[in-house]
Design a protein that fits this description.
This protein has two domains: about 160 residues, Alpha-Beta Complex (Quinone Oxidoreductase, Chain A, domain 1), CATH 3.90.180; about 130 residues, Rossmann fold (3-Layer(aba) Sandwich), CATH 3.40.50.720. By secondary structure, it is α/β, with parallel strands linked by helices. Helix 4 packs across helix 5. The protein has eleven helices and 15 strands. Helices cover about 30% and strands about 30% of the residues. The longest helix is centred in the middle third of the chain and has 13 residues. The chain is globular. The strands form three sheets. Strands 3, 4, 5, 6, 7, 14 and 15 form a seven-stranded mixed beta sheet that branches. Strands 10-9-8-11-12-13 form a six-stranded parallel beta sheet, with helices on both faces. A two-stranded antiparallel ribbon has the order 1-2.
């Protein structure tokens, strides 16, 4: 099968296309012929030697990626919910060794869901790590309720554009930060209020927020503390949260912490249902063929992606 391996951390030239044996399917796994893969910031960071690289740097061959949509070609003996020919999608083995940059992937059945028939493999692959992060942060962790004021940073990005749609569906008042160029985009997603991070001070634009989703990092987390009400929550998703910032949030009566998404097939079923009912939609910024994986990484690396970058096989 075709696969892309990472010989060593570094630039996109270290993503090497090669031929490998088709994976062996475990008793609780399914073998999926991959049709589409989505690219995330963590893919880029891991390729460069950061992100998840330290967790499996000794593995050989090291195959990046976690987000897939495709067709089941074989099932393990303990697998009953799926059968050969089913179209499925999911985030596989995160935060472990996902091995998604390949023509075939052996995925735990517990990590995937049936793909809605009304959406493409590209749209499904996009709605995996990013959509799951939004779901687990807003629903599982924060328990967003109708009327809550929710602030979503980087609202036009991968996680952000799903988070806006989910928060709106949950009945929240949704405040979004993005560039002025993306104001119309996030407004169409459901934003009630837009803040241009390039020209507006956060503290001047909003106060008494119940929940903040920070997809940018420490500086944004720090500035968000001043706009959250006591008892509110800030969840940071890019990398670890400095202890000093977590302590600052605590001193202000705010729950502030780092959150890492986990593979979960039951959550994927909820995402599938929302996609099927058009409650959430995937916005695909650009699609690349498999042999242009490096170009997909370079685009993701710009930090200017609206929605998701997808690679097709």
């Amino acid at each position: 099968m075709k696969a892309i391996i990472l010989k060593e951390p570094g630039g996109v030239e270290n993503l090497i296309e090669t031929e490998l044996a088709i994976p062996v399917v475990g008793d609780d796994d399914v073998l999926i012929q991959v049709k589409a893969i989505s690219i995330n910031p963590v893919d880029v960071k891991t390729r460069a030697g950061k992100g998840m690289y330290g967790r499996f740097k000794e593995l050989n061959p090291l195959i990046l990626g976690w987000d897939i949509s495709g067709v089941i070609t074989e099932t393990g003996k303990n697998v009953s919910p799926f059968k050969k020919g089913d179209e499925v999608f999911g985030m596989v083995n995160f935060p472990g060794h996902g091995k998604a940059y390949a023509e075939y992937i052996a995925a735990p059945a517990a990590h995937i869901a049936l793909k809605p028939s009304g959406i493409s493999h590209e749209e499904a692959a996009a709605a995996t790590l990013a959509a799951l992060t939004a779901w687990q942060a807003l629903v599982t962790k924060a328990n967003i309720q109708p009327g809550n004021k929710v602030l979503i940073h980087a609202a036009s990005g991968g996680v952000g554009h799903y988070a806006v749609q989910l928060a709106k569906h949950l009945g929240a008042y949704v405040i979004c930060t993005s560039s002025a160029a993306n104001k119309e985009f996030v407004s169409r997603l459901g934003a009630d209020q837009h803040i241009d991070y390039q020209s507006q001070r956060l503290q001047d634009a909003v106060q008494d927020v119940d929940f903040v989703l920070d997809a940018i990092g420490a500086d944004v987390f720090d500035s968000s503390i001043s706009v959250v009400k006591r008892g509110g929550t800030i969840i940071s998703i890019p990398g670890g949260l400095p202890e000093a910032l977590a302590e600052k949030a605590k001193q202000n009566g705010i729950n502030g912490y780092f959150f890492l998404v986990q593979s979960n097939g039951e959550d994927m079923k909820r995402i599938a249902d929302f996609l099927d009912r058009k409650i959430i939609r995937s916005h695909i910024h650009q699609t690349f063929p498999f042999h242009d994986m490096g170009k997909a990484h370079l685009l993701q690396e710009t930090g200017r992606v609206k929605g998701k970058v997808v690679v097709t096989l």
